[in-house]
Structure formats: C-alpha cells, structure tokens
Here is the input.
Amino acid sequence: MRPPCTRKHPDNRICELLERCPFLTSLVDLSEGPNYIMSQVAMAIGDTRLSEDGVACVFDHLNSMASADDDTVNLLVVSVLELLTDTSDSIERTRKGLNGGAARFLFERVLRGWIN
Here is the structure.
C-alpha cells in the first residue's frame, strides 16, 4: 500500500486525480469527501466547464480508475458514471471521451442498468 499523499486531500484517489489533472483543484471543494469531489468532476464534464484537454485528462484518469481496486471502481461508478447518464449529450460525450478504455465497459453496464 502506498503512503498517504500529502498533496491537497487525505484520500489517495483524489490525490492521484489532482496530480494527473491539477486544473481540477480550482473546480472542486477539497474540504469534502471523495464521493462528493468525484461528483463535482462529473458535473464539470456534464456541463462542459472543462477545456478539451481537461476533458481528455479526466477521461484518461477515469479509465485508469476502472482498472483499480473494488473501492475505487465503486467510487467511479457511483459518483461519476451514474451521473453522466442524465442526458443524451452527456452520454455521447462520455462514450466519446472514454473511447475504448476500461471505464467505457462500466459505463455501458450502468446505461443498461447493470443487467447481465
């Protein structure tokens, strides 16, 4: 197990996100827990506040989260992917952004309602 990250947040998953996508520091409330922060990231994707490079960075990180431990995958699904199913534009943007990565498979399962 890695030592705790000393940058910005006590949760290593949030630290990793901020290390890969440092521009998010100004868009999320770092006094909150990981589920709330990740939902803020999902909302930033959904309402197009992020630049194209920012979106690419976040989606790349979401794909890496999909290959992590079960708690991280759960955080990804519950706090991000489920929120990105709210509109057809958001679904299209998410499918495009996740491309063929590991999180795309999870996203499609969320869209189907976890059947099968």
The two ends are 33 Å apart (CA to CA).
